[in-house]
Amino acid sequence: MNLDEEVLARAERIIREGYICDRCLGRQFSTVIEAKNNKQRGKIIKDALRERGVEVREDGTCWICLDFFEELDKWIKKVGEEFREIEFSTFLVGSRLPPEILESEELLWEKYGAEWSESIKLEVNREIGREIASLLKKKVDFSRPDVVAIVDVEKGEVELQIRSLYLGGRYRKLIRGIPQTHWPCGKCKGRGCEECEWSGKQYKESVEELIGEPLLKLTEGKKAILHGAGREDIDARMLGSGRPFVIEIKEPRRRFLDLKKLEEEINKFAEGKIEVEGLTQVSLDFVQLIKEMRHDKTYRVRVSFESEVSHEKLREALEKLSGVVVKQRTPKRVTHRRADKIRERKVYKVSLLSFDTREATLEIKCESGLYVKELISGDDGRTVPNLSSLLSIPAKVLELDVIDAGGLKWQNIMECRKR
To answer: Of residues 146, 233, 379, 401, which has the active-site annotation?
Structure first.
């Protein structure tokens, strides 16, 4: 191959610095010499220099990579061994090289220029990645790989960075008294104390844990995090078609799951407390998607009255609530975790399902985000209008069930996103 005079002149100056391996020499000319790889480029350059009578050292320790590439097969084997312990479809390789290697490369570039070269890290990552792809029949993914292997040369180890696994579906909460997510003990802040029986939790279980624990066992993951399309109160049931959710499993070592069997495992573990259905694998995008979902809700509410109320008076009050826009200042019970502001939400219809002079069961169809308990009680005037003020009789919610949380099926959501 006939090489450009400028290329040969620069290469000759570089080899005079000391012994340099074929890969490190070839890498300095990766954009101007066509070859299979940098090792072949380096050989081509050295052969051309020898033909000109230039003395080229045959051996020694490469002053750039410190003979790192002599151990490349060892690192390929290490990465392969780590990868065989987990399940994945796509991967990427990264590296942490010793400072002296990076400093030597920087020194070379400062002295001779870097416009034709690529970095040693890029070559290391590519060469290991290429061999792993061939060895394990897996695909390299530069954007969102299932796993990244970091070759840490100084520590002599391979670090795996495993991307979270996301599963979407719907859950029904069939009993009261269970929060949606894990609540740390208010006294010890999760450290464990006598009050929480050393569990570190305010509540013994949550929807998040009832779904997450079987998943962690099957995936060998580190942590499960539930992301819900809204949340119901702890004392409310979530019925009907259920609430859309995404559960995130951090660092799963197993990600090829039989989702139908997984549903059965979760429902068996939950023992009638919750049920899940429609599990499907989704991407990180769906976490934000379900948090932004706003759909009308339907509630069934059992209400008690402080004194007797007539059937006629109750019906009149319910008619006045139907079709109105309610102004709600953030309820006192949630001001510790929500901004104190006034929100407007529409009540579409309030229907009377059953009635006694001191108690009634209502069905309320409303806009997402309406605080239903405060629609009944008034929350000391923070919700206007409200049932208590319309009746002139204090009323409160005894039981609350979400019977329709709205939302679309996952396949419909995906179709909408494509459009």
So the answer is: 233
